[in-house]
Structure formats: structure tokens, C-alpha cells
DNA sequence: AAACGTTGCAACCGCTCCATG
DNA sequence: CCATGGAGCGGTTGCAACGTT
């Protein structure tokens, strides 16, 4: 068993106070990010390094763009999710000023429902056949989206791979890729233009391609060991 | 006005990845 | 090559705010 990342008895948990935020900001301004494990002590914070890192990356970083997602951003998230699956950090990396946590939350709270209302399964970006469509009272209430991965399945699970950490998300990527193939072969998703050239730099496409190549390689390894 | 349900977001947890010795 | 530790990631939870009955 590994040691915990910090001595939890001596650390604060929960919401950050203004003073803590200021301490963290001041420390990183003068010393840079450096080693998260030792940062809390050096900065005089009773927090675990992971907690500091998360707070900085998701909330305090000066280059964060806060506020509502634009339609372009929404579009891009949907397209990238179709390609990459739940690789939030990769997706967030294509959205300047957005964090993986923010993208993940936005997906789970807004975009999933949006896709479902459009008749698209958010897990694999395929059209939901009519007998799988959420019943009207379900979709109108937006119910059951609270906890996306576990609590209540939004659609039937026949196309959903169980969350499998090692290589599981590769399944998801390859599944997304195959679903894209499906779309190219026949039923195209309504209003889902998968052309990634709109607001994506060349490096974006490179990264996406990298991820796809990587996942393909790994799925090959899984296929023939 | 109160009770209850829903939503959105910040934060935590546990796992995996990756660099290093 | 292997073990170890730190960083990063994705899933999940807790809770305040908001909406509905």
C-alpha cells in the first residue's frame, strides 16, 4: 500500500478560504509551481499538495477564462468528446482558459442533456433509436443526469463499455472512432459537424491524431497480445 | 412561506502514468 | 529491468443555490 500524499490529519479539507487562496497565489507568484508535495508547507498552507494543485489549476490560475461556454466551445467539446471520449484534460487543452474539471462539469451538467434532447447518445455519439429515446417526462425534467457514470443510466447500456481504467478509455475512443465511421457510412448525426478545422489549430489536429494513433496502437496490443 | 427536489460546481479520492534512481 | 514517488487524470461526492409544488 502506498503512503498517502500527505498527512491527512494535519490538513484542511473542503472549501478554500480567501486567506488560503492568497497564500497560494502569493507563493506561486514568487516561487512558481514547482513541487506540489512540498508546496503547502513552504507556502504555510495546511493543505495537501494535490488540493493546492487542484485549486490553482481549476480556480486561481490567472489565465483562466471563467464564465459561460460559447457555442463554439460547446461545439468543439462535443466534437472532441466524440473523438477522444472522456479525456477531459486533452479536450480542455484545446480550449484556452478552460480546465479539465470545468469541461467535465459542463459536459455532465449541460452537454449530455443537450445531446440526449437531440436524440444522441452522449456516451458514443450515436443516434438513439426511437425505442431508446428518453420518455418525454424524463427528458423534460432532465432527470437522472446527476451522476453520469454510475448512479442512473441515461440510456440503455448496450453500447456503453464498463469503466475500465487500464485501457478502458481506449475502448471508448475506439468506440467513438467506430461510431464516427458509422456516421460516415450512413446515418449522420443531426447538427453535429465533425469537421475539426473550425477553431482548432494545427497542433490540435496533431494532438487529436496522436491520441487516436496511440489508442489504436493500444487496442492493437489488446487485440493480439 | 415552507418543504422538497434539482442543478451546478468545487473539491476529494483513488487510480494510472511517468520520471528517476 | 525494477521499485518508488510525484504528478496528473477521471470519477464521484458534498453542498449551496435555485426552482417547483
Automatic annotation (TrEMBL):
GO terms for biological process: regulation of primary metabolic process; response to other organism. Residues 8-60, 61-115 form the HTH myb-type domain. Residues 139-150 have a biased composition (Low complexity). Residues 126-225 are annotated as: Disordered. CDD domains: SANT. GO terms for cellular component: nucleus. It comes from the Eukaryota. It is found in: Nucleus. SMART domains: SANT (SM00717). InterPro entries: Homeodomain-like_sf (IPR009057), Myb_dom (IPR017930), Myb_TF_plants (IPR015495), SANT/Myb (IPR001005). The keyword Cell wall biogenesis/degradation does not apply. Can form complexes with MYC2, MYC3 or MYC4. Keywords: DNA-binding, Nucleus, Repeat, Transcription, Transcription regulation. GO terms for molecular function: transcription cis-regulatory region binding. Residues 8-60, 61-111 form the Myb-like domain. Its main location: nucleus. This is Uncharacterized protein.
Amino acid at each position: 500500500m502506498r503512503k498517502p500524499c500527505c498527512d491527512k490529519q494535519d490538513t484542511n479539507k473542503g472549501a478554500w478560504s480567501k486567506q488560503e487562496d492568497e497564500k497560494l497565489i502569493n507563493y506561486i507568484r514568487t516561487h512558481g509551481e514547482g513541487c506540489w508535495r512540498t508546496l503547502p508547507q513552504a507556502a504555510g498552507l495546511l493543505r495537501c499538495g494535490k488540493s493546492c494543485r487542484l485549486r490553482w489549476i481549476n480556480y486561481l490560475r490567472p489565465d483562466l477564462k471563467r464564465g459561460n461556454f460559447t457555442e463554439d466551445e460547446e461545439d468543439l467539446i462535443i466534437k472532441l468528446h466524440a473523438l477522444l471520449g472522456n479525456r477531459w484534460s486533452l479536450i480542455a487543452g484545446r480550449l484556452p482558459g478552460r480546465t479539465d474539471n470545468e469541461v467535465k462539469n459542463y459536459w455532465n451538467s449541460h452537454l449530455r442533456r443537450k445531446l440526449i434532447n437531440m436524440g444522441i447518445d452522449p456516451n458514443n455519439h450515436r443516434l438513439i433509436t426511437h425505442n431508446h429515446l428518453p420518455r418525454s417526462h424524463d427528458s423534460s425534467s432532465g432527470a437522472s443526469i446527476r451522476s453520469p457514470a454510475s448512479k442512473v443510466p441515461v440510456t440503455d447500456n448496450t453500447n456503453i463499455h464498463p469503466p475500465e481504467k487500464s485501457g478502458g478509455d481506449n475502448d471508448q475512443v475506439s468506440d467513438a472512432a467506430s461510431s464516427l465511421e458509422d456516421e460516415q457510412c450512413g446515418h449522420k448525426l443531426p447538427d453535429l459537424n465533425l469537421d475539426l478545422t473550425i477553431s482548432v489549430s494545427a497542433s490540435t489536429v496533431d494532438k487529436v491524431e496522436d491520441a487516436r494513433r496511440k489508442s489504436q496502437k493500444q487496442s492493437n496490443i489488446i487485440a493480439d497480445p
